[in-house]
Design brief:
single chain; oxygen-dependent protoporphyrinogen oxidase activity; EC 1.3.3.15; oxidoreductase; 5-stranded parallel beta sheet; Coproporphyrinogen III oxidase; 17 helices; flavoprotein; 3 domains; Polyamine Oxidase, Chain A, domain 2; FAD/NAD(P)-binding domain
């Protein structure tokens, strides 16, 4: 691949450093490695797992390649769309079915909220909302329109803000199903500025939380909240790896980093891995610039070896999640009885999943890949925020047990009984470090950590645990941090001891 003129200009601008080391091969690491390579550096990327992409991965179920993690990207910014364009994938961008999702409450399933953001309604007069919230809940929600804009503006969590403006019914019946499904956390545990940037400012400008939610919704390009790629978001990870290979980036999998340190012989960084098949021998990777793109706990462990003060910045434990994908032959599902999926309220005792996606109803490319009457549904398990960091009991089940539970939950959520003979194939994927945990004070901790990282020579830290959940947040944050690293390097005094 021949670099563009813009890439040549970028490479010319940053010539001081000659090499870079990226630790972690998720999307943040892949994007960082690409921007460093475009800037003209020799890049080495090390990843502990056998494959790259992190939570943007794939698995095969019933001979169909499906996403094993992230299935879409938020379109509130152009960051992911720009990356997709650079990789030549714009023609594969696809929008979801506009039927929308449902919410499953203690008293049954109802169409979900589509007029606002995070489940916060942007229209209190929409049909069915009174039935969902109840008479008192509806009255309490409409108080938001009469209260001064200053009410709730100092709230630290999403739950605190919504409860102050609209009451508990909106929190538990609309917002909690959304945040538990997307972030695996209750609204009371989510930092409002991290998961809903601009919401408090919009509240002050619009005068009500209802109007603020509506304004943020309207700001979404083309009226879409999310989009994906034909073939799944795993196509993005594969394209990044191909691009890096073309650019000569050294890609190393199975590299479980034991230690990070400054190179005593050269100007730069090095990581050390003990080779499992060679006893005491070690493998060392080096780079003048460092991008720490590992998960939060691994990043802090490695950075603490350089400066013990980093140990005080250990992030909150990431919510653990299990995804059970079912492929079933059930023509009754052709009508998409619950739209594109269902978000589950925390007080719905007869369902243990926190969310379900009807993938073959949501994405046309999945529908087209299946024979008539066959469907793909994916159920998510594992709500964060349990006391004493206890794991959700569903996650202790074996894969076979979880598939059995998923069949039962899917029957309830879809309103169509799935029989054992309907199951064509199934797979369970478990994630332990895929989600960030943006609890109150998260932004302040991120600022402090990055201030400390900035004190290290030629280093930055990136990833979902810092940027927040979602490809849009990760891509934007990573590219900004790498650009700033390169700018600092260009402005630093020249040295003659490059590796």
């Amino acid at each position: 691949m021949t670099p563009s003129s813009d890439e040549h200009q970028s490479a010319t601008k940053y010539r001081r450093a000659r090499s870079a080391l990226v630790v972690g091969g998720g999307v943040a690491g892949l994007v960082a490695a690409r921007d460093l390579a475009i800037a003209g550096l020799r890049v080495t990327l090390v990843e502990s797992r056998p494959q790259f992409g992190g939570a943007v991965g794939s698995h095969m179920v019933a001979d169909l390649v499906l996403d094993s993690g992230a299935e879409s990207f938020a379109t509130r910014t152009d960051d992911v769309a720009d990356l997709i364009k650079e990789l030549g994938l714009t023609g594969r961008v696809c929008a979801p079915n506009q039927a929308g999702s449902w919410v499953y409450l203690a008293d049954g399933a109802r169409p979900g909220e589509r007029s606002g953001v995070l489940g916060i309604p942007g229209d209190l007069d929409r049909e069915g909302l009174r039935e969902t919230l109840g008479k008192y809940g509806m009255w309490r929600a409409k108080l938001d329109l009469k209260r001064p804009a200053r009410v709730g503006v100092k709230a630290k969590t999403v739950g605190e803000l919504v409860r102050a403006r609209m009451g508990a019914a909106v929190v538990e019946k609309l917002v909690a199903p959304f945040t538990l499904g997307v972030h695996s956390l209750h609204p009371d545990e989510l930092d409002v500025d991290t998961v809903a940037p601009g919401l408090r400012k919009a509240l002050q400008e619009c005068g009500s939380l209802t109007a603020a939610a509506a304004s943020l919704r309207q700001a979404t390009p083309a009226g879409q909240n999310v989009a994906s790629l034909s073939g799944g978001m795993n196509v993005l990870a594969e394209a990044l790896v191909r691009d890096l290979t073309t650019r000569g980036v050294k890609l190393v999998t199975g590299y479980d980093v034991l230690a990070l340190d400054r190179d005593p012989r050269r100007s730069g960084w090095m990581v050390v891995q003990r080779q499992p098949d060679t006893g005491d021998k070690t493998a060392i990777a080096r780079g003048e610039l460092l991008v720490m793109a590992a998960d939060g706990s691994s990043a802090i462990r490695l950075l603490s070896g350089v400066d013990r003060d980093f140990a005080q910045l250990q992030p909150d434990p990431s919510p653990k999640v299990a995804l059970a994908t079912l492929v079933v032959d059930r023509p009754e599902l052709d009508a998409a009885p619950r739209g594109t999926g269902v978000l589950v309220a925390p007080d719905a005792k007869d369902v243990r999943a926190k969310a379900m996606t009807h993938a073959s109803a949501k994405w046309q490319w999945v529908r087209d890949a299946l024979p008539a009457g066959r469907h793909v549904v994916r159920l998510s398990y594992g709500r964060g925020g349990e006391k004493d960091n206890q794991v959700s009991p569903e996650l202790a089940l074996t894969d076979e047990q979880l598939v059995t539970l998923a069949m039962r939950d899917a029957s309830t959520l879809l309103g169509v009984r799935l029989r054992p003979q309907d199951l064509v194939d199934a797979d369970v994927v478990r994630w332990e470090q895929a989600l960030s945990r943006p609890s109150p004070g998260h932004r302040d901790r991120v600022v402090r950590l990055r201030e400390d990282v900035a004190k290290l020579p030629a280093a930055v830290a990136v990833g979902a645990w810092l940027a927040g959940t979602g490809l849009a947040a990760v891509v934007k944050d990573t590219r900004r941090e790498v650009a700033e690293l390169l700018e600092r390097e260009a402005a630093s005094p020249a040295t003659d001891d490059h590796p």
